[in-house]
Amino acid sequence: MSFRSSSLAVAIALAFLAPAVSFADASTDLDQVVVTASRTDQTLNQVLAASTVIDRAEIERLQPRSLADLLRGTPGVSIANNGGPGKATSVFLRGTEADHVLVLVDGVKIGSATSGTAALQDIPVDQIERIEIVRGPYSSLYGSDALGGVIQIFTRHPEGGFVPHFSVGVGSYDTLRGSAGFAGRGAQGWYAVEASHDQTDGINACRGKPSPGGGGCFTYEPDKDGYRDNALSLKGGWRFDEQWDADASATRTEGRNHYDGTSSNVAESATQVVGGRLRYKPSQDVLLTANLGRSEDLSTDYENGVYADTFNTHRDVASVQADLGRVGGAAGLTTLGFDWQRDRVVGNTDYLVDARRNHALFAQWQQEFGASSVQAGLRRDENSQFGGKTTGSLQYGYALTKTLRVTGSYGTAFKAPTFNDLYYPDYGNPDLGPETSRNWELGVRGTPGWGNWSINAFQNKIDHLIVFDSGLSGPLFPFGGANNIDRSRIRGVELAADTTLGDWRLAGNATWLQPDDDSDDASHGNLLPRRARRTAHVDVDRSFGAFSAGASVFASGYRYDDTANAHRLGGYALTNLRMAYAFDAAWKVELSANNILDRHYETARYFNQPGRNWMLTLRYQPRS
Questions:
Q1: Percent of the chain with pLDDT over 70
Q2: C-alpha distances in angstroms, 30 versus 25, 38, 53, 250?
Q3: Residue 4 banded pLDDT, cuts 50, 70, 90
Q4: Is the dihedral of CA 297, 303, 305, 306 positive or negative?
Q5: What local confidence, expressed as pLDDT, does residue 212 receive?
Q6: How far, CA to CA in Å, does 174 sit from each of 68, 203, 251, 264?
Q7: Is 139 helix (H, G, I), strand (E, B) or coil?
Q8: 306 DSSP β-pair partners
Q9: Using 50, 70 and 90 to split pLDDT, how confident is the model at 327?
Q10: Phi, psi dihedrals of residue 433, rounded to the nearest 5°
């Protein structure tokens, strides 16, 4: 199946959703609460930003192999993976860089302070309750990193009394997966405990060749590159009275990953996130919240069993926030807050500086004027490395009818340079400033009785991009180094729709991007690497009583693997099938078959991807 035929199928499906007759209510619950788009409680119908919510029911219906597989089918997302399950995975949101996406777990910012990206490949989907994806610039609320958007992951929590659950699965490449947990809720408190295990023999990650004249991993290791991941999460909360409540969470994943490389080929990694929140509501129109958290990104590399190096980063965060006004559901809400962050690097690499701090003040105003809705934000960050940065955003929505709304927005954002950009030996440049962006967006969304649909068009101009500059000279740069010299201009259109027709559920989306290099060098006008110009996704599901079946088709256009656009990666289409049978109220068996047409494709040059594969899962999950 070519990309052209696949995208045509998506376009036809989306075009014919609207005029269909006898549709039931939309599958998306517009009354569900979303917090990422404003740092306050909103219903999905109130959110002005382009947003996607994936809940636990959706995760179980789609049966994704990994978090990357789950994100791949959402609007504006492009994935690059270095060799299959557990390997380094980059998420490009709306064509921005992989480190232009802010990732939160239960409200705590995660990611490596050296590389700038989060280890999404190590987060098990069995422990995820819901995901909120907000597309667009959000530095006015969250500070650095949110040039392309924000992805917030919430771990599982209880919905009623004591409920245990577990699952066990086997699949291709000698894959074995298991998870177990229990959760409960009482009159004043709640708790949740989750554990999971995932292991696979994997595939040969890289088809690279040794230097000189090689590529990819610059080595030839035709072996299976396995992966193992263990995860544990603990959550709990307590309501002291009508005014005070608190909750806390802790999550840790530990992985061992084999790959192909010249200086190392095994990595032992861990990601740990700990957070707590205290809320005080003295009146209906005042809510005060204090948050405290720490995230750690830990990695130790080995080459054929011999220790190579260690990269550990620690991030401490704290915030205080006051919501004044619409806490009880009135028409306006003012939010004032203070954020504090400290990053540290611990390892055997000699960084000139191994710690930095950032603090910020932010304010936000939300108001409804009849058919109009406004959300405006302003933030000032002060960083111990590069000084101050001010960002802002303005979003406006107007309800043409009860089921049709137009939106428009403008926002600025920035990305602080990483410790590698600043201080890595023979590369880092301590004089770097932050990357900055300006984003414009227009949208239309409809919520008719048959379902939901939306169209969003945007342009994002990014300046001072940090890239390798061979022209730098001096004692710090024997071979060149990092510099703020590139620009990019990204334009795009996203289209999405979903509905139900009897027992059928239909959903689809398509994204058209023009991610251009706008710098003044030879790459001017080229496409940014590893980002496809066109992607599309269609889901079709049907229930037959206790039995359900579904299919997904994801199609991606070509992309380039380099800034010179000399190495083209062909477009591809993936077709996945799934079925499930609930032979009891609490027991269900699931079977998924992925890439059933056994397509060969690469999202990063020289790095292989799984062929046809399957997964069989037995799940026990009683309802409270």
A1: 94
A2: 11, 16, 10, 30
A3: very low
A4: negative
A5: 65
A6: 20, 10, 27, 24
A7: helix
A8: 303
A9: low
A10: -110, 175
Q: Collect all residues with Cβ–Cβ distance below 8 Å to 375 and sequence separation of at least 6.
A: 38, 48, 364, 365, 366, 393, 394, 395
pLDDT (0 to 100) of residue 216: 73
Q: Is the pTM of this model over 0.85?
A: yes
Please report, for residues 93, 148, 210, 359, 464, the alpha-carbon distance to residue 436 in angstroms, rounded to integers and kept in the order given.
Answer: 16, 11, 38, 18, 6
pLDDT for the residue numbered 55: 95
**CA–CA separation, 516 and 471 (whole Å):** 23
DSSP H/E element including 423: helix 419-423
List of residues 6+ apart from 182 with CB closer than 8 A: 162, 163, 164, 165, 192, 193
The residue whose two tokens read 């192909």 is 260
pLDDT band at 486 (very low <50, low <70, confident <90, very high): very high
Tell me if 274 sits within 8 A of 250, measured CB to CB.
yes
Say yes or no to pLDDT of 25 above 60.
no
Say how far apart CA 142 and CA 414 lie, in whole Å: 10
- In which residue are the tokens 């806490």 written? 327
379: left (phi over 0), alpha (psi -120 to 50) or beta: beta
Residue 3 pLDDT > 90: no
Task: Please tell me the distance from the alpha carbon of residue 106 to that of residue 299, in angstroms, as a whole number.
Answer: 22
Measured between alpha carbons, how far is 506 from 539 in angstroms, rounded to an integer?
6
Residue whose structure tokens are 């079977």: 591
| Residue 21, pLDDT above cutoff 60 | no
The phi, psi pair for 36, rounded to 5°, reads: -65, -35
All residues at 6 or more sequence positions from 351 whose CB lies less than 8 Å from its CB, including other chains: 345, 419, 423, 424, 425, 428
Residue from 76, 101, 99, 36 nearest 441 by CA: 76
* Cis status, amide bond into 622, omega within 30 of 0: no
